[in-house]
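I am still getting used to backbone structure tokens and would like to learn alongside you. To get us started, please write out a protein record for me. Once you have written the record down, we can walk along the chain together.
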Amino acid sequence: MKPIHSYTIDQTRHLTLLQAFLAREEVHDIGVTYLDPEGVEHAYSWGEMVQRARKRASWLQTHLGLRTGQTLGLALPNHPHFIECLFACWMVGGIAVPLPQPGLFGGKTQERSLFIVQDAGFASLLCAEEDADYFAPLAKTVKIVKILEEDITDTPPLFFDKIPISPEQTGLLQYTSGSTVKPRGVMLRHSNLAQNCRGMAEGYPFYEDESFASWLPFYHDMGLIAELLLSIYTARVRFLAMQRVLSSFKKAAWEKVYWRSASGAKPAAQKP
């Protein structure tokens, strides 16, 4: 099978990941599938994801007052909420700062998160409802905001006449692990992210209806850039996101991940 080069984002038109994402607004094919810990699939078209992000952007402006150039903490799991909040942040010109979920850095997770909160200087930290108590001790320094589905149920989508960001603006503040020293923030421009994805897309020949299956956390640059953002950049690649650490998944969920991501393969009949 030959690579379908026509599916690749036109780099002359889309200089940022936000532009590539918005170009999917009229695409009704499934783009993101979330596999929860019970192995249940929740599928969203690219068009649905763009609409969710537009609504979330409006919500960020109205409820948090997020503005151009401000940083926003994303301590969210591998879930569509992370994707919509990331692109919503960019839709209002904000700078996204991914943070790990509880326990992913062991006992140092909370200490590391507090350092990043203070260093990055953001006023709000977005987290899953089930993680709000864990991040509560940080409330003296930052506003802890639970991301709920009902937040955007009746929220009007945010529309704009032109892309609210430029390629040379900072779009992501990515922190190092902090294994030997304090975590250090690396400022990545929107052009850096697009060029990174472009290089990976040129180095790997994607095929029609190919898909990514990933359990790597989105706060990690490989899970975020090399898989999620690359899937969006290449336009027709579908993304299968998995929650938390898969060692807690049921055997059936593991099998679904394998067969779901295998091209054209079908699982053999299972004995009762």
User: Anything to note?
Assistant: The chain has eight helices and ten strands. The mean pLDDT is 82.
